[in-house]
Amino acid sequence: MTAGAVVPPQAADEWRRVHVISPLVRGWIALVAILYFAGRDWFEGLFDADSRGRGPLPEGVGLLLAGGVVLGVVVVIAAVFLVSWYFTRYQVTAEHVRVHSGVVFRQQRQARLDRVQAIDIVQPFLARIFGLAELKFEVADAGESAVRLAFLKLDDAKKLRATILARAAGVEPDPEHPEEVPEAPEREVVVSPPGRVVGAALLSGTTVALVVAAAVIITLGITLDTPFIATSFIPLLIGVVGAYWSALSTGYNFRAATSPDGIRMRYGLLDTRAQTVPPGRVQALGIVQSPLWRLKGWYRVTVNVAGYGASASNEGQARATLLPVGTRDEVLQILALVLPDPGTPRPVEVFGAGMTGRDGGEGFVTTPRRARWLAPLAWRRNGFTVTGTALLLRSGVLWRQLVVVPHERTQSLSIDQGPVDRRVRVANLQFQTTPGPVSPRVLLADADAAWDLFHGQSVRAAEARRRSGPEQWMKPVSLPAAQTVDGPDHRIEVRANTGPGVSDAAPGDSGRASAVPPSGQPVGLHGAAEDLPVDDVATRSAVVDGGPPITAGSPSGFVVPSGATDAAVDRAAAPEQAAVMPEVPRYEPAPAQAPRSLEEAPDGQR
Amino acid sequence: MRSEPIDPSGLEWTRVSPKYLRVRLLGWLIGSLVWILLASVPLVLRLTGVWDSFPPVWLAWGLPAVVLVSAVWRGILLPRQVRAIGYAERDDDLLVRQGVFFQRTMVVPYGRMQYVDVAVGPIERAFGICTLKLHTASPATNAFIPGLPTGEGARLREQLSARGEARLAGL
Predict the structure, then answer these.
(1) Which of A318, A402, B105, B132 could form a disulfide bond with A250, CB atoms 3.0-4.6 angstroms apart?
(2) Are residues B97 and B126 in the same domain?
(3) Compositional bias (Basic and acidic residues) spans (chain A) (predicted)?
């Protein structure tokens, strides 16, 4: 990355501190607790003294003393927070974000920007009152945030996010105004109405549990004729209200948007959160429908993102949720954002079959009939299919589930077989991804089909990794010949051989891939971006909006923005952000006599 | 016991060192003894009359008997289990298989390896073998090859690291 070398030190490279109020916002619970306990002691002491008629000290002195102690404690705590605030500094350079913290035990942390997996801006309720926000920078360590900056002014947090994302994306800064990194434009694609969130909570398992528990308690109360019914409802109600509240507060006002920097999500009732997941960071995606949601045709979409990890907390679950409750169309829209190229000309049909279908339609390979006694209900639904870009795994009859794993995201896979499985010649496959709520696996697949998938998937994954996009997703891509390529591989060809990690010239590579120098660095500029002024917005829009990556001439069922390629230069040159709004990828149903997919696997009945 | 999806034809497994069987047998012997001793405690107490009625005699005898039978069964199975462990290096990935009844084959692409561990315990060191473990970005990738001769372990480690570097892919 050359930006740092070319551009003189920028304002954003300064060492900075978080907002001066943040110690107060972070420590307010401690302060309130101290005031509460101290105040209560003082108050009770006063009361005792009055009732007994003998004060240990004259009235005014006691008050002063108590006030002094409280004040002293508060000052000490405030000083601790203030010192810790003073020694916490951060810096964003062209390649790294650094945080220095600690007074006695110093800590200096440095994270590479192009390793970003997600950036969140969180506003707890109190911080929201002060107009502050916390910025979380996630890398792939699946646990604690690599960098947490609490708290910044909301505007500063947004600016910092834009700066980090622009640099992580490899956007060349504007040489004249290096400080001004405009926020990438975004377009809202999914908005959950509040009514649906309430409905989803009411139709959730919590309600079922409530009804069952109430029935049990009432039955017991009537048969045993005891009056404890009312009291046993209290803990139940507390739990239920808590569950409803967390569903409501995390799903409330949910909006998903697409931007060149990836998928944006905003949600929250009291605490609000804005998440940005850059392109290519979703490791696996799960679409789940619980039995009651079937009445309304709702689904939930969860994802494995390396930075989010597998947290059981409400917050962790909410972070890994890409769509808390949505209709089938919204799910398909979200899928189109995660997987812009579905790798099949019939994406709506294929994903639809995955979400609700059963048996061998749309290329799904299901559990063979001879093994149906091992899964009497689910055998017609257990299945998998492979498209050009992703693997679809379907399971579950009551809790319907569809898991989508992009080929280049497979970490490793295993096939296992027990003695019973061996008798009926079936096998199970497990795909390992980064920690998260989604666990991709295939149950009870025909042994030969399982082996084909196992072997084929490792080949496809290796192939997809070679072609996958760069880590710096806006980095201009060099491919002189790619612009003229037509056909189904169009998008893939253009995005090929960039970034670190795709430089291996392994046997079987295409000629183009092996032409990349071993360093793995892009050698030139993207054909489209080449002619553009090196302006942040312009470059972004050129690659995302006008570049061949999205579509042109692809038969894969997208809405092709008309004349996208030609328009790119004009649009990019225009200064207004409105002009460079990203086109929203969308799956379109295949026409009636669509050709069958080339990728289609053989039907499952063997 | 070769079955197609687990042991595909056209793939030669490298088996682990026979010394690993001795390590496993040693561990099995110690473990079994401890368990049998523990399971015999009620029997001893019952026979010496410290406990007079609680565990019925059949239960007091039955417990160590069950433990003994399961230990013998595991002991019989051990040689086959050790023989079932194998690995194969292919151009782009490493395959590891294990298991006699519940068989599993795992494939780990070289480019996905984050790091490689070689671990040697005291007993393993005495026999000159080591255990190699592969780590990817997924903690669920539970790929380890026990019972490698020390030299082979070092060679494999270097080989895997080199290949991983050549095929390095992010996440």
Answers:
(1) A318
(2) yes
(3) 597-606
